[in-house]
Every structure is written in structure tokens, then in C-alpha cells.
Amino acid sequence: MTHPNRARGAWRRLAAGLAAGLVLASGTALGSVPVDGAAWAAPGDGKYEPKTCGTKLPGAMPEGGPWQVERLRMPELHELATGDGVRIAVIDTGVFFGRSAHQSGMDLTWKDFADTDKARDGRVDCDHGTFVTSLIIGQPGTEAGTPATEQFSGIAPGATVIAMRALQESNADPDELESLDPTIDAVQAAIDADVDIISISQQGTDDPRYRAVIKKAVDAGILVVAAAGNYGEAGATYPANYPGVMAVAMTDRSDQPDAASQWGGGMEISVAAPGTAVVGLFPLCSESECPDSGPAAYGSQTGTSFAAPLVAGAAALVMERHPDLTAAQVKLLLEETADPPTADPAIVGHGIINPYQALTGPRPPAVDEDDQQVGKVHIPPVAADTDHLQRNTALAVAGVSLAIVAVSGVVAAALPAGRRRHWKPADKD
Fold first, then answer.
1. String of b and e for 219-235 (b: at least 16 CB within 10 Å)?
2. Are 198 and 224 in contact (CB under 8 A)?
3. Percentage of residues in the chain having pLDDT higher than 70
4. What are phi and psi of 56, to 5 degrees?
5. What's the CA gap between 164 and 422, in Å, rounded?
6. Single pTM value for the model
7. Count of Cβ atoms closer than 10 Å to residue 206 Cβ
8. Among 12, 38, 311, 313, which residue has the fewest nearby CB atoms (within 10 Å)?
9. For residue 283, which of 28, 115, 91, 103 has the smallest C-alpha distance?
């Protein structure tokens, strides 16, 4: 069912052009030399099935746990919204969760656009796509005796994800950039599928055809969220630098930007989100290989690849709670309610997303979908969600002090008159 947060107009759809190269935004190398177009598989042609993904054995929770769960207050968020009814296209590598306990109840389908010519021993690389997808719709852990903030969860476990396989490898050789063609086709397929959000954890070169299809998605009312890249002050990358796209930076446990978070070259960073050593899921061993019980295939990774899906998931929560908002309004709301930046806004944009504030604070006014100013609606700023104990204590002390001063003034004024009356009551008339 189509989510009612936006309208689609066939008259806005554009044409396409050339191809370029790209890699995943998870620490892999970025190149700028276009590559030749490559053939890719059509959905259902048998070249790719999730069960062909290379898998890992169950792995224990990394030391320190899934810090992003506590940082973004996910258990509290899920009391307000889970992303139910929101459709997200994740354009990445393949996705496979196997028998993970976090998979049960997950709303996930897949489409294939990339060839499998780089499959090793018949196994397809699905590490990156699975990890990214888990950060959005991984189901909350239910381990008895463990606080919810210490258990893994995706940020929008109730959302629907259409995993669109457009890349073959999680760690690309900088000399072997993958074709942009499958990604362009995947964006078009996402538009045709009437999704609400597109999440792209890739960084690549500018290309007329890519620019056109991203504009087509934005014009159709889809919120496009993209990783900013992982090469520090290296300049703009794409699709993060295309107009209307939410370019996402990454921060660490101390709310500081990761040194690798990419910026510069005129690229406008929208917001930041946890991306340093975040905990997610890898493809878990298949039915025949998995033990009857055991942990998921937990792991931790660093990259704007993993900050972007957290922002996409936060947007899904907002769309569920405020279904009449446009994509542009959702973007603006997440920006205006972000915790104030602790570093140069050129690096972290409006700051670290605060989805709890976005769900509970002031919301933008309704705007006609044809209003040309839709992206410029003012949202009243919301103060950072911080501990107000110090402020409240100071106010209380100030209040008591003012009361003491006031009483002292009254007493001081009454003393001369009292003396004159030898402390007798004043005449009532």
C-alpha cells in the first residue's frame, strides 16, 4: 500500500543518459574514471537468490554493544513509531539474514540488478547490503535480563524494505569500479515501486544519467538519503551532492565527526548520525549450516554507509507519525530537530539526528504538494534534547533568591512605620 506522505506525478519523470563508476561508502576507495557499462541480471532470472549469499557463523555481540541503539533512544522511539507502512528501497549489495533471531517478523523483499560474475565459489557477496538493511529493519532483541539499550535493533523495525542488489562486492578494488548502470536502473525501479524513501550507501562520480534519475526520484516526492563518503576533506561525491538529497555524515561515540567522514567541494551535508564502529548483522549461516541456537552474526563497521540507513530509518518513523508531510518537510524536520553541531557544520551539517525530538517536537505546517516553496517551510527550532537538571536547579535557586529579596524589601519598608506606631496595628479605616 502506498504511504500517503507524498504525491506522484507522471508528468515530472525525466529521461536518462550515460554511465559512471561507483563504490560503497564503507571505507572502500573512490575513483573518478568512468567505466564501461556492464550487463546485469533481471529480477527472477536465477542468477541471484538470497540463499546463494556467502554467510558467516554466529558471532558474539562486539565489546561495548550496539551504542547507536542507546544514542538514538531506539526503545523509546519504538513506543511512538516503528516505520509501519513506510516503504524503503535499499540500493546496495545482496541481502540475506538466514536464521537470525532479528529476522523474524522482518518485512523484506528483494530485486536484482547486478550480474554475479564476481561470485566466489558460487557464493554472492551480501555482507554490506545485509549490514545496512539490518540497521533499518533488524528486529529488536528479546534477550531476558539484558536492557533494551544493550540489545541490537534496527531503527525502524516496522518499515518495509525492498533490497535492490546493484553492486557485487562489499569491498571494491579501487582499480575496478563497478558500473553505475545497475544503480540507475534500481533508482528507476524504486520510483516505479512507489517507495517513500531511497537509501543509497554508495559514493561515485557525477553523471548526467545518474543526476537525472535522482532528480526524477526527488521530483516524485521520494526522500533520497545518501552516504557522504569516507575520505575526509576530499570534496563532493555522488549521489550525496545532488540537489534535494540528504547527504549524511558520520559521528563517533563522543558525538564528534569521524575523521574519515567526507566533506568539502561545495557538498552540503544535511545531518550526521552514528557511523563509527556501529553494530549490525552480517549474513548468517544457512538453514543447513546453522546450529539450533546461538547468537546472530553480529559485527561492527565504520563508514557513512552505516550512518545513512539510520537517517533513512528515522525518516520512516517521522513519515509514520506524520503521514501528511512531504519528503521535503520530513528532511527539514530532521534537520531542524537535530542536536546542534559539535563541529564545523560543513562537516556535520545541522548536527546529529534526534529522532525523538522529531517525533515529539513541533512539526511543520501542512503545505500544498504543488507549492513551489515546499522545501523552504520554516519549522520552529527545537532545543537539543539534553539533561535539564542543572538548568532547573539554577532556576529554582534564582526563584528562591528573588523571593527572599522581595520579602526583605517589604520588611524594610514596614520597619519605620512600625516604629512610629510603637508596633500597634494600623487603623482599619
1. bbbbbbbbbbbbbeebb
2. yes
3. 71
4. -125, 160
5. 93
6. 0.79
7. 15
8. 12
9. 103
